[in-house]
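Everyone, carefully examine this protein record:
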Amino acid sequence: MNNNRIIHHQILGNLPECKWVKITVDGKRIKAREGETIAAALIAAGVKVFRYSVKRDEPRSLFCAIGRCTDCVMIVNNRPNVRTCVTLVENGMKIETQKGLGKRQINHEGS
């Protein structure tokens, strides 16, 4: 996948060293910076489509980037409708492109 990260910024300087974590996005493993949002990791990796709309099945991606709209929702660790722009990555996360409203995973053992 692409690396769309800004490594050197004219005002902010060089990107500081960090710890990297691994996440899986639609079956592909990518590296993400610890402490960044899922959306930031996906954009840096070149992922452009986060979900498909309910009525027209149109691709959607990051829009507001502050958690107000729902264009960035994805299925994260089998939980649909997670706002990826405000959710931090965690090592081992499983992330999937969401189709429509997503399907809730049911745990038949009580929760």
About this structure: The chain has a mean pLDDT of 89. Residues 8-99 form a domain with the Ubiquitin-like (UB roll) fold (CATH 3.10.20.440). DSSP finds one helix and ten strands in the chain.
